[in-house]
Amino acid sequence: MKYEPVIGIEIHVQLATKTKMFCSCDNDSFGKEANINTCPICMGYPGMLPVTNAEALEKGVLAALALNCKIESFSKFDRKHYFYPDLPKGFQISQYDQPLATGGFVETETKDGKKKIRIHRLHLEDDAGKLIHTKGGTLCDYNRSGTPLAEIVSEADMHSPEEARAYAEEVHRRIRACGASTCDMEKGMMRFDINISLRPVGQEKFGTKAEVKNLNSFRFMEMALKYEIKRQTELLEKGEKVVQETRGFDLEKGITYSQRSKEEAKDYRYFPEPDLPPMTFTEAEISKIATGLSELPHEKEARYQQKFALNQADANQLASDAQMSAYFEEVVAKGADPKEAANWITSSILAYLNEHKVSFAELKVSPEALAQMTKMIKNGIISKKIAKDVLEEMYKSGKMPEEVVEEKGLKQVSDESEVEKWCQEAIVANEKIVADYKGGNERAIGALVGHVMNSSKGQANPGLVNKILQKLLQN
Helix 312-319 to helix 322-333 angle, to the nearest 10 degrees? Predict the structure, then answer.
């Protein structure tokens, strides 16, 4: 029997606020000494009263709008009770039956075309602390306790690990773009809980689901889903039942493992948070927050394809990073051909940034410099081969390409008599290749062009080389 996976994802995003959700503690604790950013409020001391962070509310609304959600005019906080060592209050302040936002969606690219994946709700809550396991026992770091979170709950609209990853990546792009969070997964600022069940193909009723928690990369999420599909398929084929439970993911072994039986809503004993007033939003207030919503990646991607005739892959890559898209647009504004600019940015420049672990803000090659370089290639002043050498020097010095070319004597040679000498030398030195070409293998001329380019140290005009070689070989 064939089975169809049914997948839903809960995405937890740490909001990019200066302070925590309900107190004035610093919200930036990454890499800091344990328990340095705590206070009686986020540690749950008796008598301490929380105060809702207005910036967190605004960032939550921005995130919801970026995901096409409806902002509810009335929402409230609730207490969600469970007992973990890293939860100092003994409960989490979350939202249960009246969340901040509902009913969103995103569109993703799949092998079968575009697919709309619905979002059930987005609600706000505070985070727990962090457990650090050592040989001597388990340590609790409460720096993260009270960090503002937006939890984004999808509908069970995904049916493969690839679809799930595409959805998570699109949410990641939008949340980063709207400024609600940096979504830095290496710092735990975006985490995934996946719910997966199997059902016979054609059946509408869902199977029994398992939840895999705390996955902090797209790759790990995809790996966990593939393992769960295999595990659940094997159980069902043996006539055994899938148990509803919470599971962890062992990266080294590439497997999921049982942690505990799955809790139901009743197990958390929700009730309205008595120390916080409900939240209300008017249309005017929502519209005011929405003015801070910049062009989203999917909108930018469509514009790049329509306005600049970029292919989907380049448009997607450029639109996915705010710094990269801003750099690209400035290069184009300085007069570069959009396709040439996109090609240099998504290949050579991005490779350099990744290798040296620097950002576009730290790049010494200004948009004006890159635009000038592309124009020099177009005007035949330098070849693309020489341009790569010029770019290497620009990375180091930040000089304009004209200055680099002048200093190093790298101008492209377009003098026909000089290029013809190189071409004649190539023909004399490559008798077999010449015979192949004259015997009907027209592609053989590429080897001769390569010989000329090497002899000229990349300075010969490639178009002229081709033209002269063809002329000489006809004799």
Answer: 110
Distances (CA, A) of 34 to 18, 30, 139, 197: 18, 10, 10, 38
In this prediction the pTM is: 0.82
**Other C-beta atoms within 10 Å of 332: how many?**
21
Residues 172/205, Cβ–Cβ less than 8 Å? no
Question: What's domain 416-473's architecture?
Answer: Orthogonal Bundle (1.10)
* Alpha carbons 150 and 57: distance in angstroms, whole number: 10
User: Distance between CA atoms of 108 and 457, rounded to whole angstroms?
Assistant: 46
Rounded to 10 deg, the angle between the 462-473 and 445-455 helix axes is 130
Q: Taking CA 259 as the corner, what is the angle to CA 191 and CA 27, rounded to the nearest 5 degrees? A: 30
Q: Of all helices (H) and strands (E), which one includes residue 197? A: strand 190-200
Give me the average pLDDT of each 10-residue run along the chain (475 residues): 95 97 94 94 94 97 97 97 90 97 94 91 96 90 96 97 96 95 93 96 94 95 97 95 94 92 80 96 95 91 96 94 94 96 96 93 95 91 86 93 81 70 84 79 81 77 79 78
Query: What is the DSSP code (8-state) at residue 97?
Result: S
Domain boundaries, the chain: 3-288, 297-408, 416-473
State the helix-helix crossing angle for 54-66 and 283-290, rounded to 10 degrees: 80
